[in-house]
């Protein structure tokens, strides 16, 4: 049944049953009820909860609150997301964390650009809208450093690549090649959007601290390491100049330092080492430049294939 939107935040008219609200959860019995009820208040009744075999009453609470609950077949938030994306058939998907840290009432900020055809994927920037103590200090610092590196590595303007509050079309998510089963999934998702040249935009969303009773599943050290190495590895295909270039700086410093030592101590070993470091610096820069040509050509080819496919679909629709 079609429902109209009279919400002051949203003057678009659309069928809310075309939107699937997807919530990955693991041990969120304290918060999940509130999240589901808030979306229902907004008129969204199509709610899918994918549970990672919670040890508490999350599944029962979610079912009672009126969501469809599915138990994930594997482990990790990433696997839950991949499973959900293969199941969801609605045209639009809104994904949100089940810990009550984000607001259902802000859904229109994310959904409207997708409904209006202005974006394929909208990410909620929690860093811009964070309330006091929403992030633990260490997590905020790690997040900001990670996003800073990401902006350089991917020549992007994104400020919160790890956000769990997102809206996108079913077609755009199915185009992505997602494999990561853990918390690296959000990084992979963002990188894949950029690789596939999707229109990805960011909007600020309010972000609250998670309830004290419910422990976080994110390990700042383990997951932080996994995410940062993933950002570096993914940059190989997107921005090889960054991937190789980061090595050029320490190598150039070593070349200058050993040249200084060679001059100061009048020593041939340092001079030879300096020459080797210069050679290595040149080699990594060259590797970056050559790989960048290949990566750029690959992107252009993909873009042409995509444009061609779109044109074919439009021509097919006209018949
Ligand atoms: N299905 C499923 N959901 C998960 C899993 N791990 C985490 N989640 C859910 O994914 C969402 C985000 O996880 P959080 O632990 O809140 O991660 P975060 O928001 O980055 O970190 P916090 O600051 O601790 O909130 C929450 O709804 C979790 O319950 C999992 O293995 N399987
Ligand atoms: Mg959270």
UniProtKB/TrEMBL annotation:
The chain crosses the membrane at residues 241-265, 271-290. Residues 20-175 form the Glycosyltransferase 2-like domain. Keywords: Membrane, Transmembrane, Transmembrane helix. GO terms for molecular function: glycosyltransferase activity. The keyword Zinc does not apply. This is Glycosyltransferase 2-like domain-containing protein.
């Amino acid at each position: 049944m079609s429902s109209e939107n009279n919400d002051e935040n949203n003057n678009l008219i659309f069928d809310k049953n075309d939107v699937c609200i997807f919530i990955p959860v693991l041990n969120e019995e304290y918060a999940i009820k509130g999240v589901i009820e808030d979306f229902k208040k907004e008129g969204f009744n199509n709610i899918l909860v994918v549970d990672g075999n919670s040890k508490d009453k999350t599944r029962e609470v979610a079912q009672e609150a009126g969501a469809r609950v599915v138990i994930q077949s594997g482990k990790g938030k990433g696997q839950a997301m991949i499973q959900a994306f293969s199941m969801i058939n609605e045209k639009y998907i809104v994904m949100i964390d089940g810990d009550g840290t984000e607001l259902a009432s802000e859904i229109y900020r994310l959904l409207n650009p997708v409904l209006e055809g202005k974006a394929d994927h909208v990410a909620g920037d929690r860093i811009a809208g964070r309330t006091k103590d929403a992030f633990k200090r260490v997590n905020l610092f790690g997040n900001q450093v990670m996003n800073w590196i990401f902006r350089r590595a991917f020549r992007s303007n994104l400020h919160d690549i790890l956000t769990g509050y997102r809206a996108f079309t079913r077609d755009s998510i199915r185009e992505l090649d997602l494999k990561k089963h853990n918390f690296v999934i959000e990084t992979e998702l963002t990188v894949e959007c950029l690789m596939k040249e999707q229109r990805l935009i960011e909007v600020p969303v309010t972000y609250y601290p998670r309830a004290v009773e419910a422990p976080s599943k994110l390990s700042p050290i383990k997951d932080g390491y996994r995410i940062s190495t993933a950002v570096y590895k993914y940059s190989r295909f997107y921005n090889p100049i960054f991937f190789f270039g980061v090595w050029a700086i320490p190598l150039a410093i070593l070349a200058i330092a050993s040249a200084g030592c060679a001059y100061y101590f009048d020593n041939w070993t340092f001079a030879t080492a300096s020459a080797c470091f210069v050679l290595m610096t040149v080699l990594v820069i060259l590797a970056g430049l050559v790989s960048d040509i290949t990566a750029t050509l690959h992107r252009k080819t993909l873009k042409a294939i995509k444009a061609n496919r779109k044109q074919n679909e439009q021509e097919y629709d006209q018949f």
